[in-house]
Amino acid sequence: MKKFLALSRTTHGVLDLATPGFCALLWLGRFPAWQIILLSLFTAFAAYTAIYALNDLVGIAVDKEKFTSGINAGYSVEASAMRYPLAQNVLNYRSGLLWFAVWFALALIGSYFLNPAIDIILITAAILEVTYCLLLKVTYLRTLVSGLVKSGGPLAAVFVVDRNPSPYLLLLIFVWVFFWEIGGQNIPADWNDTEEDKRVNAKTIPIQFGPKKAGLIVMIALGITVMVSLLLPMIFPIKLGWLYLLATAVAGFMLLLRPGYQLYQRGEMRQMAATLFDHASYYPLAQLAIISVFVIFK
Question: What are phi and psi of 183, to 5 degrees?
């Protein structure tokens, strides 16, 4: 089972569940019925499990080429020695494909019962994930595609609690998740894999622009994330007040801006990218914890 969980990067996937949870709670202003919560958790878990597995299934050939000298250290939230199990030949492709198909089917079924419109979001995310993988040797702009993929879960969560959401408020959530993914997840992940990516002539922002400019792009993306987070209370049904703004700003500084700036200053140290990735992975969980407190005590 460990090799299947490694294929789907389950530790990271579980952390990712906090993002749609936060967005749904922010939008609704209260906890949904427990039946909705359970079905949503299962569906989201199935979706993230499938999409992460899809990444390795599509990229297996390149991954084998990248990691001919072994798998790098990775990040604390993805520190399994079985990272990239397909590339390491500890899991056969057929088994991985079946694992993906089962979880994707379960995600489609769960999405249909929550809101059939979510199936469209899920299928679109899968297509975009395939596109993202295929663009590795084509253009560094594929990082924009990663932002689109990661936005799918939070937007789907809104459709669970509101079948006719405001497009303007949806755009606000989209921008927040989009820039968090680019600055806190995608570029740091590529940064951590720079040596391996060079072996396959990959096109990534750290390779294309070098550490200084890549670090600046990270800081801009994270700065936008934190600024937009201060606008998210517009979505909440009642006024959240200055205490919420303070809490969300502190979370943004500690988990995004501070490690992002450290990466910008010491970009030649690859472990700094892993540090930012780890801190940023906990940012949505921090936001979920903050909004939960305000919902409980409002």
Answer: -80, -30
Long-range contacts of 85-93 (CB under 8 A, 24+ apart): 85/3, 85/4, 85/6, 85/7, 85/56, 86/7, 86/56, 86/57, 86/60, 87/56, 87/60, 87/63, 90/3, 91/3, 91/4, 91/6, 91/7, 93/57, 93/60
State how many domains the chain has.
Answer: 1
Tens of pLDDT, residue by residue over 60-95, are: 888 888 777 666 666 666 656 677 888 888 888 999
CA distance 46 to 8: 10
DSSP codes of every residue in 220-259: HHHHHHHHHHTTGGGTSSS---HHHHHHHHHHHIIIIIHH
- Please report, for the domain that includes residue 124, its CATH number: 1.10.600
Give this prediction's pTM.
0.94
Q: Identify the domain containing residue 18 by its residue range.
A: 2-297
Cα torsion for 126, 127, 129, 131, to the nearest 10°? 170
Hey, how many other C-beta atoms are within 10 angstroms of the C-beta on 66?
22
